[in-house]
Amino acid sequence: MRQDWISLATARLPRYTSYPTAADFSDMPDGHAVRSAMDRITPETSLGVYVHVPFCEKLCWYCGCATTVPNGYRRVSSFVDVLMKEIDVWRNHLPAHADMRHLHFGGGSPNSLNCGDFREIINHIKLAFGVDEDIEIDIELDPRTTTDAFIETLASCGVTRASLGVQTLSDPVQKAINRIQPRHMVTAKLAHLRQNGIRRINMDLMYGLPLQTREDVKEAAQYAADVGADRISLFGYAHVPWFAKHQRAIRDEDLPGLEERFEQARVGHEVLTGEGYVAIGLDHYARPEDSLAQSLRDGTIRRTFQGYTDNPCKTLIGLGPSAISEMPGGFFQTSKAQPIWRAQVEGGVLPISRGVLQSADDKVRARAIETVMSTMRVDIADVAREMRAPVRALEPALDAARKLEPLGLCTVSGTIVEVPEEARMMLRTVASCFDWRLASSEGRHAVAV
Ligand code: SF4
């Protein structure tokens, strides 16, 4: 890593899975804004739906997700009752019927649901929101707690893609993060998914974990490639113990330093690209024939709260506590506190607690940020044309990007900003040139690398 990148790499920056980012959300308790945004949904709108299942059997110390340990099924069962009502609340507020093209189950661990409940939820969602014939249904799975019966249920419910949380194969690292998961366990779940016809497989890996070494990252990346995962994410561990309190169980002295993190990411990148994977944006890899790699080639790739995606839906309904919805004109989030979410749903109101409205200027910046975060290149003239905005709206961002040129983080040529391969890990720094809101939210993000 170049020494003159260090101060920028330690800056706290958003991951830019939306713009404005979640750090810009503020209280929005009356639901008025989301109702007026929903009025702009037309019958032609393709819907995406995200279901947040906020339970895990055990907490991993590195986790930054909104999840809790239910200690038995009673709390999960009561969550399912409210979720079914929430589906009805959203359906009753939708102004026009629109077909669902993408359905994603995340969390937490969606496999905390029992088979019967999962089946009921998915059937209820399909009835409420309609189903496009090309629908992709994907789910995040914890290999430690996913049963074979659950996998068979997924297959019979039409799930098309599964994302297995692997993170690391190293024993000491697994102990340090409270996630013991032997390799044979992952391999067995993968085999059962494929035997049941769920052949599109994602694997999530991490670098920068406590006690992790480059060899560990290399081993996990090689494993994911050897078993033929279609998509692989290689996320850097974000140590934010003031936000995720259980991360306090991770000792600061066990964490790799900045330059080691950079090297771990580089080693993972080398293994995966050496195995023929296409590098996508900050931290994703896809086999060349996978639809995500295809979307990078044809320019339709997007970056959303679920990361990089070829899902074209620009309207997303988020179900469950802490879920974020994307509507024409803004982002809206349900309360992370299950009792608040529950009370709102029981009262028949849209359970929105926080959010941010997207101004016309935000939309132009959002498109520029999404483009550079996905393709490592953005032509502001193209963005201005697509968004029907004057190019001058983005010109100050070009000036900011020019200041990064001497550092080798990007080149600016006419209206084009391009990030060289060696600065891929610093993409967020270049994207931040387009972010006029950053100064007010900087302290609330994880470091850039
Ligand atoms: S299984 Fe996933 S969501 Fe659950 S605690 Fe571990 S990292 Fe967090």
Automatic annotation (TrEMBL):
Subcellular location: Cytoplasm
PROSITE patterns: RADICAL_SAM (PS51918)
EC number: 1.3.98.3
Residues of the Radical SAM core domain: 41-275
Keyword Secreted: no
GO CC annotations on file: cytoplasm
Residues that coordinate or bind [4Fe-4S] cluster: 56, 60, 63
GO BP terms: protoporphyrinogen IX biosynthetic process
Matches recorded under Gene3D superfamilies: 1.10.10.920, tm_1862 like domain
Catalytically driven reaction(s): coproporphyrinogen III + 2 S-adenosyl-L-methionine = protoporphyrinogen IX + 2 5'-deoxyadenosine + 2 L-methionine + 2 CO2
PANTHER family: COPROPORPHYRINIGEN III OXIDASE (PTHR13932), OXYGEN-INDEPENDENT COPROPORPHYRINOGEN III OXIDASE (PTHR13932:SF6)
Assembly notes: Monomer.
UniProt similarity note: Belongs to the anaerobic coproporphyrinogen-III oxidase family.
Function: Involved in the heme biosynthesis. Catalyzes the anaerobic oxidative decarboxylation of propionate groups of rings A and B of coproporphyrinogen III to yield the vinyl groups in protoporphyrinogen IX.
Protein name: Coproporphyrinogen-III oxidase
